[in-house]
Amino acid sequence: MLNLERLRTLDALARHGSVSGAAEGLHITTSAVSQQMSKLEREVGQQLLAKNGRGVRLTDAGRLLADHAARILSQVEVAQSDLEAQRGQVVGELRLAAFPTALRGLFPEALTGLRAAHPALRLSSRELEPEDGVNAVLRGDADLAVVLDWYNKPLPMPQGLAKASILDDPVEIAMAVNHPLADREEVDLEDFAEDEWVAWPEGEFCHEWLLYTLRAKGMEPRIAHCAEEHHTQLALVAAGLGVCVAPRLGRDPMPAGVRAVPVRHRVHRYIYAVWRADADRRPSIRAAVEALRAAAEKVG
């Protein structure tokens, strides 16, 4: 009889590609991963791991069993989801993730509402960039992640996930109050062809979106400063060090000395929640989506 927890360990090894990655994903030690795999090898009577330099790789038997493990665990998830749906109660544990502005702009209101409405539900949350949030859901490290699409550049979405819209987030351009365009009612992106930009760190989805969008307008972006948080970006803008994209969500309070001006041809982000399709019937997932939408309605 195959042990479910050992299959879960094998599945984590296959997904993460290393013992340390599997240990981190399962929130256990690397020695615990090794022990589980040794026991699983004895159960099946075959070698599942082989040394690969300083790490390990799955043998042919290991890959075969890992494929079965993924399907078995998916069916277990469906069974748990169906049982929760049949019971109709919002209970258990719900692990949430969100990119920084969604965590700041939606989660305080949403999680407070969830905790008040469903006191038997255990909640945890962490900050992850959109692509990392999607991967965390795929790996089973998070039950639900709040991510985003830009209006002209969608986030790549793997198969096996379900999604629900949360918020259509309008975007403005933030500039110092003494900027020549600060008194405008609307601006075009092309108006900032000679400006320096404050942007997200290189390699992030939103940084790549900014480059893609400005280049599509015939502009080569002059990115002078990079910062993870919008409030840090806005502080740099207030100091007169550039302009930045300023989404509505999680933006307030706006620092003194900064004005955000709408873009004439509307720029916006689609904020949505994703979860594994095999968990689609979990009442806790549905309750979380409702709470996030309720919080989104209060975003000014």
List keywords for this structure.
300 residues, alpha/beta, 10 strands, elongated
Describe the structure.
The chain has 300 residues and is an alpha/beta fold. The chain has ten helices and ten strands. The chain has helices spanning 4-16, 19-26, 30-44, 60-87, 100-105, 107-117, 130-139, 205-216, 230-238, 283-296, and strands at 49-52, 55-58, 92-98, 121-127, 144-150, 161-176, 196-199, 222-226, 244-247, 258-276. A six-stranded mixed sheet has the order 4-3-5-10-6-9, with helices on both faces. Strands 1-2 form a two-stranded antiparallel sheet. Strands 7-8 form a two-stranded parallel sheet. Helix 8 (205-216) links the parallel strand 7 (196-199) and strand 8. Helix 6 crosses helix 10 (283-296). The radius of gyration is 23 Å and the shape is elongated. The protein starts with a helix and ends with a helix. The mean pLDDT is 90.
Q: What's the tally of helices?
A: 10
Using the alpha-carbon principal axes, give the shape: elongated
Number of strands: 10
> What is the helix/strand order?
HHHEEHEHHEHEEEHEHEEH
Sketch the major β-sheet: 6 strands, mixed
In angstroms, what separates the terminal alpha carbons?
56 Å
In terms of DSSP E residues, the strand content is: 25-35%
- This entry's quaternary arrangement is single chain
Radius of gyration: 23 Å
The stretches of 5 or more residues where confidence is low (pLDDT under 50) are: none
Record the strand order, biggest sheet.
4-3-5-10-6-9
Helix content: 40-55%
Q: Could you report the average pLDDT, rounded to the nearest whole number?
A: 90
Structural class by helix and strand composition: alpha/beta
